[in-house]
Each structure stands twice: as C-alpha cells, then as structure tokens.
Design a protein that fits this description.
The chain is α+β, with helices and mostly antiparallel strands. It is built from four helices and three strands.
C-alpha cells in the first residue's frame, strides 16, 4: 500500500532524484533564484527550508550536516551559513517563495521561479 508515500519521482530512480535535488539546492544557494518546473520547485522547498533552519542553529554539528547534504561543497555551505541564513535569524520558516510563470513552449510544462524571500 502507498499510504504516506507522496514524493514526486520525476521519472528517475532514487539516486538520480537525490542528485537532481542536490543540484537544484546548490544552484539556488549560488544564484539566489532559479527557474524550474513547478513540481521540482515544490519538491525542493522543504529541503531548502530545513537547510536554512540548520544553518541558523550555528553549531558545529549542524554545519557538518549542511556540508554533507551539499555533496561536501564547502563554498556553497559557507555561503548558506554566512550570507543567507543570518537574514532569516528571527524568522520561523518560510524562507523561500515560489512564483508561477507561463508554461514552457516546447512541452507545455508548468514553470515557476523559486527564490529566497
């Protein structure tokens, strides 16, 4: 039975899905906003929210967790910890915004922009 199994699969196997989401996380941290499909943006949001919450904790353990979840990319982890997370110190969640765009011309996919608030 599929009770509680509500994740999106994107036509990929598990390791490809995690690689896709980690790539999207790295791009969002690097650029601040990315344009992607609506389903990918909605799937990415909880992961980014949890990373920013971890970055706000400020402990060594949380920093090591962030680095491990970002494929050991210390530059992006440092950007998240030093530049992005301090903006949301007093905020209790809701660090990202998803804005819908017109459909993509080639395949009529629903597009959206995900960015930090």
């Amino acid at each position: 039975m599929r009770h509680g199994n509500h994740n999106r699969k994107f036509g990929r196997v598990k390791n490809q899905r995690t690689a896709l989401l980690r790539g999207l996380m790295l791009s969002l941290i690097k650029h601040g906003r990315i344009e992607t499909t609506e389903a990918k943006a909605k799937e990415l949001r909880p992961y980014m929210e949890k990373l920013v919450t971890l970055a706000n904790e400020g402990t060594l353990h949380s920093h090591r967790l962030i680095v491990s979840r970002l494929y050991n990319r210390t530059a992006e982890a440092k950007t998240l910890i030093d530049k992005i997370a301090p903006k949301y110190k007093g905020r209790a969640g809701g660090y990202t915004r998803i804005t819908k765009l017109p459909v993509r011309l080639s395949d009529a996919s629903k597009m959206s922009v995900i960015e930090f608030v």
